[in-house]
Amino acid sequence: MGALCSVIRFENLQELKRLCHWGPIIALGVIAICSTMAMIDAVMWYWPLDTTGGSVNFIMLINWTVMILYNYFNAMFIGPGYVPLGWKPEKSQDCMYVQYCKVCQSYKAPRSHHCRKCNRCVMKMDHHCPWINNCCGYQNHASFTLFLLLAPLGCIHAAFIFVMTMYTQLYNRISFGWSSVKIDMSAAKRDPLPIIPFGLSAFAASLFALGLALGTTIAVGMLFIIQMKVILRNKTSIESWIEDKAKDRIQYYKTGEIFIFPYDMGSKWKNFKQVFTWSGIPEGDGLEWPVREGCHQYTLTIEQLKQKADKRVRSVRYRAVEDYSGACCPVTKGVKTFFTTPCTEEPRITLFKGDLILATRGLKHWMYGDKVLDSTTDAGMRVRGWFPRKCVEKCLYDSEMDQPLDGEKKNR
């Protein structure tokens, strides 16, 4: 029993460590600044609590804050749900339709993907979100999306408070001359006078909070729209990308195949209910999923295997001609390389002169690929990431790899 309690305490501490990351620190900081300043502005200078409207407004501000934090911490601490270690399909013959994860030592269930940040295979993985320092997936997709909805709504309310506070407090202080505009911040011409005058520091703080609120409304609101688009199609962001690559693969090889996404229920309402339920618990178990007619559980995983094989065929072998430290923005590799570093959390790989790399995609000044490792000493390991294009040269002797990088023209 004592050992079990120790394990639980350790897991709780590990979850709390998620807060010690730049994403949650910034997100919670923005929430704290906007909500606190909105309450202070409303109570002190715009809508006092001794009025009915002021009381209702204050309760609404508290309500926004509580609901935003509730869904934010749900998304962070409940997590996406992970494929059980050692999982494999019930029927042994179905193992040929799914990928095997060497890190988790188990097969990847349909719709699951391995996350390098979480170091686990995530059920119905959408993406790894730095703002919650966790993945968005099967169990927390609804909470994450509600957070994306509530945060802009709360910020719109807060922005209204900031604008009205500054307007009402500055209205009687502004005097217009023939060639100048003067603002008297020494005293407010208001009856009755507030307990604390609206001074220059309060104006600066309100203006700063207004900027945060408007920025959050735009940025998070756009993320909410993106999430709702994929939810109403019963997809994830990764699955949308897989579907696009399936169309490109079929068009490239002219196979005549017709790829049908298996999890679209044919109705936006039915797709919506796959994520949002009254109980708060998503449909299914995260391992098996309802599919549309004409498809089966492994329709998508078979397409993934085809794309993986295609990526191996179309990869290009390169040899490192310069050392590269793995820095995100290398100063010594040229100005263009420095300023065009990929805006992604995907890793950079360290290169030494003579290393071999199989490149699978590229930008104008950067490439992405897998380092070719010694199979005897590095069995089971996989090192992949971005590296500067100028550090490598194509292996001309490799006749199988003389094709252009998949997607390179698009990225250019």
Descriptive overview:
This protein has 412 residues and is an alpha+beta fold. The chain is 43% helix and 12% strand. It contains 10 helices and 13 strands. Strands 12-11-10-9-13 form a 5-stranded antiparallel beta sheet, with helices on one face. Helix 2 packs parallel to helix 4, helix 2 crosses helix 5 and helix 6 packs across helix 8. The N terminus and C terminus are likely disordered.
Question: Multimeric state of these chains?
Answer: single chain
Mean pLDDT: 86
Structural class based on helices, strands and sheet pairing: alpha+beta
Identify low-pLDDT runs. 2-8, 399-412
> With helices defined by DSSP (H or I, 4 residues minimum), what is the helix count?
10
Shape: globular
Radius of gyration from the alpha-carbon trace, in angstroms: 27 Å
Helix content: 40-55%
What is the H/E order? HHHEEEEEEHEEHHHHEHEEEEH
The largest pleated sheet is described as: 5 strands, antiparallel
Strand content: 5-15%
Largest sheet: spatial strand order: 12-11-10-9-13
Number of strands: 13
Distance between the terminal alpha carbons, to the nearest Å? 59 Å
Main location: membrane
Subcellular location: Membrane
Family: Belongs to the DHHC palmitoyltransferase family.
Enzyme class: transferase
